[in-house]
Amino acid sequence: MQPFEIVREAVAGMLGALGVLVLHFGMTLPHWRLPGLDLALAGILGCLVYAGIRLSWATKPGWVERLLGIEVDLRLQGASDTPDSLRAALRHTLDTAERQVTEPMREPLERIDRAIHAVLDSDLGSNVGRQAQYTIAATVRRYLPDTLERYLQLPEDVAQAPIGDAGRTAHDMVLEQLDVLASETEAILEDMHAGKLRELSAHGRFLEDRFNTAGNLLRQ
Residue 165 to residues 116, 159, 161: CA-CA distances in angstroms? Predict the structure, then answer.
C-alpha cells in the first residue's frame, strides 16, 4: 500500500468514526426509545461517510498528502496488465503529475491518454492487439512514469535553464520525449486499425472466392 493510500484509509476511517460519535451523542438529535437504534443509525452514517471518501478518493492523491508533503509514486504498484488495470495505472500517473507539469506538457499527455484508451477499448485478442497491449503496458508502467519522474525531480530553475551552446532546456527535452511517446501510441492505434482493415479485406476475398466457387458448381 502506498503512502497516499494509507492516508486515505486513515482519513476515511477517522471521519467515519467521527460521524458515528456525532450522530450518537449529538445534543440536537433525539435518542430513540428502542435500544441500539440510534447506534445502528450512527453506524450506517459512519459507513456512508467512509464509502463516500473512498469512492471520491479512489486512486488520486488528495490534499492531505500535499499538505503533509508526502511524496506519491507516479507508478501504481501491484496491478496486472489487464486493460482495466492499465487504465487505472495511467489515470494514477496523470493525476499524480497533474499539479506539477507545465501547460505545454499537457497537450502531448492528453494525446497519450486518448490513444492509450482507444487501444485498450479495441479488440486485443488478435496478434496485432496482443502486441499493442504489450507495448502499451510498457508505456504505462515504465516509459511514461520514467520520463515524467526524471523531469519532475529537477528544481524549476534547473529545468528551465539552457544547457550547452544549443540553448535547449530540460523542459524542451521532456516535451520532445512526450511527443515521441504520443506519436508512438497514436501509431500503435493506426496499426491496429490497419490490421483490422487487412483482416476485413481478406475476409471479403474469402467470401468472394467461396461463393463464386459455389455459384459455378450450381450452374454446372
Answer: 37, 16, 12
Model pLDDT for residues 128-149, shown as the tens digit of each residue: 678 888 899 999 999 999 999 9
CA 196 – CA 127 distance, rounded (Å): 11
The position carrying cell 509514486 is 73
* Locus of grid cell 496488465: 81
Which residue positions in the chain have pLDDT lower than 50? 27-28, 34, 217
CB 23 within 8 A of CB 45: yes
For helices 170-219 and 103-120, angle between their N-to-C axes, nearest 10 degrees: 20
- CA 174, 179, 185, 191 torsion: positive or negative? negative
Spatial CA neighbour of 117 closest among 213, 22, 192: 192
CA distance 216 to 214: 6
Residue 168, SS3 per DSSP: strand
Inter-residue contact 96 to 103 (CB < 8 Å): no
Residue 160 zone, left/alpha/beta (φ > 0; ψ -120 to 50; rest): alpha
Q: What is the pLDDT of residue 155?
A: 86
In angstroms, the CA 191 to CA 100 distance is: 33
